[in-house]
Amino acid sequence: MNLWLQLEQAGLDDSRPLAEVLEAMPWNADGLIAAIAQQHDSGEVLMLAWMNRAALEETLASGQVCYWSRSRQQLWRKGETSGHRQRLVEARLDCDGDAILLLVEQQGPACHTGRPSCFYNAIRDARVCVISVPQ
Protein backbone atom coordinates (compact mmCIF):
# COMPACT_ATOMS: atom_id res chain seq x y z
CA MET A 1 0.00 0.00 0.00
CA ASN A 2 1.47 3.39 -0.92
CA LEU A 3 2.19 5.98 1.72
CA TRP A 4 -0.63 8.35 0.71
CA LEU A 5 -3.21 5.58 0.92
CA GLN A 6 -1.80 4.60 4.33
CA LEU A 7 -2.18 8.19 5.53
CA GLU A 8 -5.68 8.39 4.06
CA GLN A 9 -6.68 5.39 6.14
CA ALA A 10 -4.73 6.42 9.24
CA GLY A 11 -6.30 7.47 12.49
CA LEU A 12 -5.93 10.75 14.31
CA ASP A 13 -2.34 11.40 15.47
CA ASP A 14 -0.91 8.53 13.40
CA SER A 15 2.40 9.65 11.92
CA ARG A 16 5.17 8.76 9.49
CA PRO A 17 8.83 9.87 9.45
CA LEU A 18 9.34 13.09 7.49
CA ALA A 19 12.13 11.58 5.38
CA GLU A 20 9.78 8.80 4.23
CA VAL A 21 7.12 11.33 3.26
CA LEU A 22 9.58 13.58 1.40
CA GLU A 23 10.73 10.56 -0.61
CA ALA A 24 7.14 9.69 -1.50
CA MET A 25 6.13 13.20 -2.58
CA PRO A 26 5.27 13.46 -6.27
CA TRP A 27 7.71 16.25 -7.19
CA ASN A 28 7.13 17.39 -10.79
CA ALA A 29 9.64 16.86 -13.62
CA ASP A 30 11.56 19.94 -12.42
CA GLY A 31 11.65 18.64 -8.85
CA LEU A 32 9.06 21.17 -7.68
CA ILE A 33 5.78 21.17 -5.82
CA ALA A 34 3.15 23.92 -5.52
CA ALA A 35 3.16 25.80 -2.22
CA ILE A 36 0.25 27.97 -1.11
CA ALA A 37 0.91 30.57 1.58
CA GLN A 38 -2.03 31.44 3.84
CA GLN A 39 -2.11 33.92 6.72
CA HIS A 40 -2.40 31.68 9.77
CA ASP A 41 -4.86 33.77 11.79
CA SER A 42 -7.16 35.31 9.15
CA GLY A 43 -7.12 32.50 6.60
CA GLU A 44 -6.37 34.93 3.75
CA VAL A 45 -4.66 33.18 0.84
CA LEU A 46 -1.53 35.21 0.17
CA MET A 47 0.30 33.62 -2.73
CA LEU A 48 1.26 30.52 -4.64
CA ALA A 49 4.90 29.71 -5.30
CA TRP A 50 7.05 26.64 -5.88
CA MET A 51 9.32 24.67 -3.59
CA ASN A 52 11.94 22.06 -4.26
CA ARG A 53 13.08 19.67 -1.57
CA ALA A 54 15.91 21.97 -0.45
CA ALA A 55 13.49 24.91 -0.06
CA LEU A 56 11.05 22.81 1.93
CA GLU A 57 13.78 21.40 4.17
CA GLU A 58 15.23 24.88 4.79
CA THR A 59 11.77 26.23 5.59
CA LEU A 60 11.09 23.45 8.08
CA ALA A 61 14.52 23.82 9.70
CA SER A 62 14.65 27.62 9.92
CA GLY A 63 11.00 28.60 10.34
CA GLN A 64 11.43 31.26 7.63
CA VAL A 65 9.76 30.42 4.34
CA CYS A 66 12.02 29.68 1.39
CA TYR A 67 10.80 28.99 -2.14
CA TRP A 68 12.40 28.02 -5.46
CA SER A 69 12.49 30.86 -7.98
CA ARG A 70 11.74 29.38 -11.38
CA SER A 71 12.81 32.59 -13.14
CA ARG A 72 16.15 32.90 -11.32
CA GLN A 73 16.71 29.15 -10.89
CA GLN A 74 17.73 29.55 -7.26
CA LEU A 75 16.39 29.45 -3.73
CA TRP A 76 14.27 32.50 -2.91
CA ARG A 77 14.06 33.37 0.74
CA LYS A 78 10.82 35.32 1.00
CA GLY A 79 11.51 38.86 2.17
CA GLU A 80 15.29 38.60 1.90
CA THR A 81 15.51 41.91 0.03
CA SER A 82 12.11 43.50 0.79
CA GLY A 83 11.91 42.60 4.48
CA HIS A 84 8.42 41.16 3.88
CA ARG A 85 9.23 37.79 5.39
CA GLN A 86 6.99 34.85 6.09
CA ARG A 87 7.41 33.04 9.40
CA LEU A 88 6.20 29.47 9.20
CA VAL A 89 3.51 28.60 11.74
CA GLU A 90 2.62 25.18 10.29
CA ALA A 91 3.14 23.23 7.06
CA ARG A 92 0.51 20.85 5.74
CA LEU A 93 0.40 18.44 2.80
CA ASP A 94 -2.73 17.73 0.83
CA CYS A 95 -4.18 14.22 0.59
CA ASP A 96 -1.93 12.99 -2.22
CA GLY A 97 1.14 15.04 -1.35
CA ASP A 98 1.21 17.16 -4.50
CA ALA A 99 0.67 20.54 -2.81
CA ILE A 100 1.88 22.19 0.37
CA LEU A 101 -0.13 24.62 2.47
CA LEU A 102 2.05 26.99 4.47
CA LEU A 103 0.31 28.69 7.36
CA VAL A 104 2.44 31.78 7.84
CA GLU A 105 2.78 35.02 9.72
CA GLN A 106 3.25 37.51 6.90
CA GLN A 107 5.33 40.60 7.66
CA GLY A 108 4.29 43.36 5.25
CA PRO A 109 2.63 42.74 1.90
CA ALA A 110 2.96 39.27 0.38
CA CYS A 111 2.82 40.38 -3.26
CA HIS A 112 5.74 41.95 -5.12
CA THR A 113 3.25 44.66 -6.24
CA GLY A 114 2.91 45.84 -2.63
CA ARG A 115 -0.55 44.37 -2.25
CA PRO A 116 -1.43 42.25 0.79
CA SER A 117 -2.14 39.21 -1.41
CA CYS A 118 -1.17 38.15 -4.92
CA PHE A 119 -4.84 37.31 -5.56
CA TYR A 120 -6.09 40.84 -6.26
CA ASN A 121 -7.66 40.21 -9.68
CA ALA A 122 -11.25 39.02 -9.22
CA ILE A 123 -13.25 37.54 -12.09
CA ARG A 124 -16.72 39.07 -11.93
CA ASP A 125 -19.41 39.14 -14.61
CA ALA A 126 -17.00 38.28 -17.45
CA ARG A 127 -14.57 40.98 -16.35
CA VAL A 128 -11.38 41.00 -14.32
CA CYS A 129 -11.55 43.59 -11.56
CA VAL A 130 -8.70 44.79 -9.37
CA ILE A 131 -9.91 44.46 -5.77
CA SER A 132 -6.96 45.79 -3.76
CA VAL A 133 -4.26 48.41 -4.12
CA PRO A 134 -0.68 48.46 -2.90
CA GLN A 135 -0.33 49.18 0.81
TrEMBL record:
This is Phosphoribosyl-AMP cyclohydrolase. Its main location: cytoplasm. Keywords: Amino-acid biosynthesis, Cytoplasm, Histidine biosynthesis, Hydrolase, Magnesium, Metal-binding, Zinc. Its cofactor is Zn(2+); Mg(2+). Homodimer. Binds 1 zinc ion per subunit. Mg(2+) binds at D94, D96, D98. Catalyzes the hydrolysis of the adenine ring of phosphoribosyl-AMP. It is an enzyme of class 3 (hydrolase). Gene3D superfamilies: Phosphoribosyl-AMP cyclohydrolase. It is found in: Cytoplasm. Its EC number is 3.5.4.19. SUPFAM superfamilies: HisI-like. Zn(2+) binds at C95, C111, C118. It holds the Pfam family PRA-CH. It comes from Pseudomonas fluvialis. Pathway: Amino-acid biosynthesis; L-histidine biosynthesis; L-histidine from 5-phospho-alpha-D-ribose 1-diphosphate: step 3/9. Signal peptide: none annotated. Coiled coil: none annotated. It catalyses: 1-(5-phospho-beta-D-ribosyl)-5'-AMP + H2O = 1-(5-phospho-beta-D-ribosyl)-5-[(5-phospho-beta-D-ribosylamino)methylideneamino]imidazole-4-carboxamide. Residues 47-120 form the Phosphoribosyl-AMP cyclohydrolase domain. Belongs to the PRA-CH family.
